[in-house]
Design brief:
Elements (H helix, E strand, L loop, with lengths): L1 E6 L2 E4 L4 E9 L6 E7 L5 E7 L6 E3 L7 E6 L4 E6 L8 E8 L15 E2 L3 E6 L1
Parallel strand pairs: 2-11
Antiparallel strand pairs: 1-3, 3-8, 4-5, 4-9, 5-6, 7-8, 9-10, 9-11
């Protein structure tokens, strides 16, 4: 089993930055692909970014490309999402997710991850 715990959410003004972290425990070798999804109030879950085991392959939603950066640290068993130039429309609950296989760019269209955290709330004020 894999446990994922997000941290780093909070309230920030538009234009500001936040850094989300996802701590991995349990069978960390099962986290071949890891990613972030978000869900805004009244909306469905939306893909944000995904990263491969090696960290060399990443995919981003068009809405965050150039503003957000996903990374992972195997020594610390963590994944992070650096969010810059935040906008009010980035307000959402952000979920950390992991998968035992790497489905590549398909994660953009299907939230087909095996493991999920409980989420952390990010609120961007205008």
């Amino acid at each position: 089993q894999v446990q994922l715990v997000e941290s780093g959410g909070g309230l920030v003004q538009a234009g500001g930055s936040l850094r989300l972290s996802c701590a991995v425990s349990g069978r960390s070798f099962s986290t071949v692909a890891m990613g972030w999804y978000r869900q805004a109030p009244g909306k469905g879950r939306e893909f944000v970014a995904v990263i491969s085991w090696s960290g060399t392959t990443t995919y981003y939603a068009d809405s965050v490309q150039g503003r957000f950066t996903i990374s992972r640290d195997h020594d610390k068993n963590t994944m992070t999402l650096q969010m810059n130039s935040l906008k009010p429309e980035d307000t959402a609950v952000y979920y950390c997710a992991a998968d035992r296989v790497n489905k590549g760019a398909s994660y953009k269209y299907n939230a087909d991850m095996e493991y999920w955290g409980k989420g952390t709330l990010v609120t961007v004020s205008s």
